[in-house]
Specification:
heterodimer; A: 615 residues; Rossmann fold; B: 352 residues; 8-stranded mixed sheet
Chain lengths: 615, 352
Amino acid sequence: MSKQVQQLDRVIIRFAGDSGDGMQLTGDRFTAGTAEFGNDLSTFPNFPAEIRAPAGTLPGVSSFQLHFADHDILTPGDAPNVLVAMNPAALKANLPDLPRGADIIVNTDEFTKRNLQKVGYETNPLEDGSLSEWRVHAVPLTSLTVKALENFDISKKDAERSKNMFALGLLSWLYHRPTEHTIKFIETKFARKPEIAKANVAAFQAGWNYGETTESFSVSYEVKPAKLAPGVYRNITGNQALALGLIAAGVQSGLPLFLGSYPITPASDILHELSKHKNFGVRTFQAEDEIAGVGAALGASFGGALGVTTTSGPGVALKAETVGLAVATELPLILVDVQRAGPSTGMPTKTEQADLLMALFGRNGESPVPVVAPRSPSDCFDAALEAARIAIKYRTPVYLLSDGYLANGSEPWRLPELSELPDISQEFTAAPNGEDGTTFLPYKRDPETLARPWAIPGTAGLEHRIGGIEKADGTGNISYDPANHDLMVRLRQAKVDGIDVPDLEVDDPSGEANVLVVGWGSTYGPIAAAVRRIRKAGGHVAQAHFRHLNPLPKNTGEVLRKYDKVLLPEVNLGQLAMILRARYLVDVIGYNRVRGLPFKAEELAGVIQDVIDSA
Amino acid sequence: MPDNLTELVNGKGLALVPKAEGKQSLKDYKSDQEVRWCPGCGDYAILAAVQSFLPELGLRRENIVFVSGIGCSSRFPYYLNTYGFHSIHGRAPAIATGLAASRPDLSVWVITGDGDALSIGGNHLIHALRRNVNLNILLFNNRIYGLTKGQYSPTSELGKITKSTPMGSLDRPFNPISLVLGAEATFVARTIDSDRKHLQSVLREATAHRGTSFVEIYQNCNIFNDNAFEPLKDPEVRDDITLRLEHGQPIVSATKAVVRGADGGLEVVPRDSVSEDRILVHDAHNPDPSVAFALSRLDEPAFEHVPIGIFRQVDRPSYDSLMQGQLDEAVAQQGRGDLGALLHAGDTWRID
């Protein structure tokens, strides 16, 4: 039987199920197949904070959304074209996001009276006509899987657990995904349980064959590979890219990397990843608390390491005093804040951009700290290197503001050639710098960067004491002198203000835009996708995105003032907008939503259009 | 680093710290800073004892680092001509942990007080001890807050009348020795500011120990808590109440002896009431900390009899050695890190 094949330019699939159903794994594998096939892609995992919420309930629903296309794309997509719902809870939780006409693949075996009741369905939506506006494919996934595995020597429970592989097989058929890597992956994952490995492979193949033979699916789809820039690619999450960026920073600076960290969602994966790479001389220290994490990192920096701490908002709050000490002692330190929804514990697995003002100002005294923010998952690599460059060159703590959306989302990353990576090495101070040739002045600054010397223990003749008490300019001795304090406060500020950050680049291809959309961090994808929509429809809009939040690029005021209207979407209540308004006296229009979710391109396109129309 | 690092350095606290070439003197360790404690403060005696002890170690001065927190004692690093880091309240053990874990070639000292180490920094202290980070921690215990001008501290006696407790403090004090033994510290000692010879003998053992050496130093604050340790200094009674702890020796004062009680605990009895063979012989190397803990409880009620000396001294691999061991093992198993290979790991594809 030959089936119809339809060509599509892009598809958005959402896998949803119970947190025990293996949806993240299924999504990951489908993504790997898609990457291997050569589509551009972007992913968005969305999972509950609970490790195992009660089975079959709405809070237990875990989902994974994948957007793939034959052209370059910027976001995991607004609304799914296809929903795979493994149970009634997954259907109910995700249906509101599903446009009419979309495909729904449901596991009918889970639509039992009890499961329907658990989520408040009084009648079975598969039978009561409430889904008539969607294309429903009712598939008894569990029983088909169990049947396909009846000749395997495994328990019924293990057979049932393979249903996600059946679903993966079916979806792989539906979208012509290559299968070889997935089979290899299953064999490796279950290498110690060969029977389970075989069963999972069989379930995967049974899913594929089911698609091929059943009448429920009359059409399959092809999405041609995307024409991306030449190079070698791999799919990568923000947290992975950030960890690799830190390792690269160690290599490119010639400094041993020291991570002091305390587990916290959604930053822990950076600690996990770095812990695997001790062969790079990476020391990872799981501290007793957030404060010790940053303290140990600062102690290591004092000893000549590249000290790093990784955390999320609540951890930043605890580390603040030590960050102030790093400002006063002027030592390199990288502070990674993978932002999540706050205040307080907030929503640990949900994203937000609301730590910007804390990073900028959340310390006692005048305490300037540079801030860098990556714009996409793979950009976390470059941003980590940039944060390290600034920290080392200027002897300062640097905030790297990632967020939950970047941390867990993924996209293809064109791997850089090692020769493309910046050299961020600096020499330690090795000789006295006093005019007499024997004295060492730990606070005598480089006239150009205003950085102080970095003389590490073990260097003879440069013994010196540093600390949090105000120091005299030059000698570093304790000083309560009023004029000296005023000078030191201004010097520390001038050092950070003088950091060499590149100019803000404006994307305004027609040159006819009156409206500029600016953003920072993870909103790059949805803003750029929205800008494309406007331009495709014939509109004109300019876009600029901040990577450096402190200091801001020197041309910022000039850029902002060039346009009639400046729009700034942020996943907070207007934090960067406040800074830009205060500093440049520009009437920035904010667009702010704090739902724990990234913006949607369509939503932002609407907002931009409204601003254009009112300009 | 050699493969048998742990074996090489255990019991040899300074084996990895480079030695100075010439002979050193006290002058080498005095910084150019004016010492600014209150006249008569016990900190002067401790500083002088440390400054005159360091030359004996013969280490390269630049490989010594003093790290402190906040409090009167935490000014200590400024007065030594070594590397120094005067940090923030309670965090010195955390900062020193990062330094010592990444630099086995340094002799790292933490200078702290009863408020710094046992109140705001209590968590870092016990975790440094649990990990056995290669540090010498000197806790100056004056049983009062000095720098903030006289509030009670976590070692002040119950009912202490101070500015913040005009009707007497309500919280029971920590016994620092009991606390750190509970955290299974590998080296635990107590000494006193006024007995330089004893203080230096404890420092000698503490620096020879690889791992965390914890030394409580009774230190007099003559402004806010004068004479807190007077019984131990008073020639009339000090020899009677001081129980000297020396490994392999019976635990006695001039007139008292420690014996095992009927309930299995320890008791202090008149020395002449028991035969020599009933007196407890001190075993600082006992892997089980229970007897050391029982010894630490003997000064309840305070100053009837006070054990002074090394309570415990056992070998356990230090944190930096273990960490370095894992780094070496990772290189042995995976080969030295190759950034290009790391970036290209996992599923990759090429677009031409």
